[in-house]
Design brief:
The structure holds two protein chains of two kinds. The longest helix of chain A has 21 residues. Chain A has two helices and one strand, in the order βαα. Chain A is globular. The two termini of chain A are 14 Å apart. Chain A is mainly alpha-helical. By secondary structure, chain B is α/β, with parallel strands linked by helices. Chain B is built from nine helices and eight strands. In chain B, strand 2, helix 3 and strand 3 form a beta-alpha-beta unit. In chain B, helix 2 crosses helix 4 and helix 4 runs parallel beside helix 7. Chain B starts with 5 loop residues before the first helix and ends with a strand. Classes of the chains: A mainly alpha, B alpha/beta. At the A-B interface, strand 1, helix 1 and helix 2 of A face helix 1, strand 1, helix 2, helix 3 and strand 8 of B.
Chain lengths: 77, 226
C-alpha cells in the first residue's frame, strides 16, 4: 500500500526530494488511471474504491510477487 | 481533518508526501522462504523506516535516505511475527512495525485460538496446531529494542464497537499503558481495526490524542496527530 502523509496539526513542509516528487507524480497518474478503470462508478470520496485502486498501484508498481503478502492495503483487519 | 478521497491521495503523491507500506498478518514458518525472498527484494530497493525517520519526515516534509522508504507492518501480535518475521527483517536491515492487540498477548495460551476467532484475528494452519499463537510480553519487549511495537487496540476493535468511555479506556488508553510498561518506551502509533482514518469521530480522535499517540495509521493515510 502507499500511505499519504498528513499532519493534522499544521501543513507539511514541501518535499525537497526530487525522487519522491518524480515517483509520486507517476504514482498519482497511475492511481487516477486505475481509479477510472476499476471503479468508474465511485464517488471521489468513496474510501473503499480508493483503497481498491491504491492496492492495485501497490501490487503493480512496487511490490515483488509473493504468496506471503496477504493484503497490501486494508491492513488493520 | 483530512478525509480519505481520491483528490487528497493524488495531491499527497504529487507532493512527495507518501510512504510505501506492506501489510502482513500471520507469517508461519512454512512460508518463511517466501517471506524471506520478498523482504530481501524490498531491502534491495528500499530503505528502512525507523521511528526517527518518520518523525523527521513529518518535521521536514522530505525523505533524506538514498532509497525510498518502506515499512513492513506485521499486524495483531502473532508469535510468528516475533519468531519468523522479525529475524528476517533484521537479517535484511529492515525496521518492522508491529501493531499488537495487547489483550491477545495477555490471553492464556489455551484460549488464544478462541480469542483469535472471536476478535477477527485470522489463523493459518500452523496457528491451529496447539500451543501459543500470540507473542509473549518478553517477545514484545525484545522486539521493541530493534523495531517499532505499538497498540492495535487491546481486543482488536474498531470504531463500531468502541462506544463509551469504558471502551475507550480499555482499547485506547490501557493498551498503551500495558505496552509502555513492558517496553519502557512511549508507543508512538495507534491503529483501529479496519484501519479507520483519523477524522471519522471526534470522540475517538480525542481519545487517541489524549492517550499520547503521535500517529494514527489508516488504510490510505498516516496521520500525525500529536
Amino acid at each position: 500500500m502507499i500511505l499519504g502523509l498528513v499532519d493534522e496539526r499544521r501543513p507539511l513542509p514541501p518535499s525537497e526530494d526530487p525522487a519522491a516528487l518524480e515517483s509520486g507524480a507517476a504514482l498519482a497518474t497511475v492511481l487516477a488511471s486505475y481509479h477510472r478503470t476499476l471503479v468508474p462508478f465511485a464517488r471521489p470520496d468513496d474510501e473503499g474504491a480508493l483503497i481498491a485502486a491504491m492496492q492495485v498501484v501497490a501490487y503493480s508498481h512496487f511490490a515483488p510477487v509473493s504468496p506471503m503478502r496477504q493484503d497490501s492495503g486494508t491492513a488493520p483487519a | 481533518m483530512t478525509k480519505p478521497d481520491l483528490r487528497t491521495a493524488r495531491q499527497q503523491l504529487e507532493q512527495g508526501h507518501f510512504l510505501r507500506v506492506v501489510n502482513y498478518h500471520s507469517t508461519p514458518m512454512v512460508d518463511r522462504a517466501g517471506l524471506e525472498r520478498e523482504l530481501a527484494a524490498f531491502a534491495r530497493d528500499y530503505a528502512p523506516v525507523t521511528l526517527a525517520d518518520l518523525d523527521e519526515l513529518f518535521e521536514t516534509g522530505t525523505w533524506r535516505k538514498d532509497r525510498p522508504g518502506l515499512m513492513p507492518v506485521f499486524y495483531e501480535g502473532y508469535r510468528n511475527s516475533a519468531t519468523v518475521a522479525a529475524p528476517l527483517c533484521e537479517r535484511y536491515g529492515l525496521t518492522g512495525w508491529f501493531p499488537v492487540a495487547t489483550s491477545f498477548v495477555d490471553c492464556p495460551v489455551e484460549h488464544q485460538e478462541a480469542f483469535a476467532r472471536a476478535h477477527w484475528i485470522s489463523l493459518v494452519e500452523e496457528d491451529q496446531q496447539g500451543g501459543r499463537i500470540a507473542m509473549s510480553w518478553d517477545e514484545v519487549a525484545e522486539l521493541s529494542r530493534r523495531h517499532v511495537v505499538t497498540p492495535h487496540t487491546a481486543h482488536h476493535e474498531g470504531l463500531d464497537t468502541v462506544l463509551d468511555d469504558a471502551d475507550l479506556e480499555r482499547e485506547v488508553f490501557a493498551s498503551k499503558r500495558a505496552l509502555d510498561a513492558v517496553t519502557g518506551q512511549s508507543a508512538p502509533a495507534f491503529v483501529w481495526l479496519h484501519g479507520s482514518a483519523y477524522g471519522q469521530s471526534e470522540r475517538h480522535d480525542r481519545a487517541v490524542r489524549e492517550a499520547g499517540y503521535r500517529y494514527q495509521f489508516s488504510n490510505t493515510m498516516l496521520h500525525r496527530i500529536n
